[in-house]
């Protein structure tokens, strides 16, 4: 995909990822992260959003929500 067209798609994917995080639907993050990795080189943005989510949930609710990190990072681990 042309990188000139990728940033608008990245914004859409990030919004979808944040929506899934707010709805606590973590399993759709796997296909979203896969498509995000294929279309945009800055796939780390979705992982960063999941890390920020974990920090905010840990701060606000005093519990460690590990599932967003696992679901987002699972897509990229075999390629690293």
Structural summary, described in words:
The chain has 80 residues and is an all-alpha fold. It is built from four helices and no strands. The chain is elongated. The mean pLDDT is 77.
What is shown here, in short?
The protein has helices spanning 6-22, 29-39, 44-61, 67-76.
Q: What string gives the helices and strands in order? A: HHHH
Query: What is the distance, rounded to the nearest whole angstrom, between the alpha carbons of the first and last residues?
Result: 21 Å
SSE-based structural type: mainly alpha
Oligomeric grouping of the chains: single chain
Features:
single chain, 80 residues, mainly alpha, 4 helices, 0% strand, elongated
Strand and helix map with partners:
Blueprint: H1 6-22, H2 29-39, H3 44-61, H4 67-76
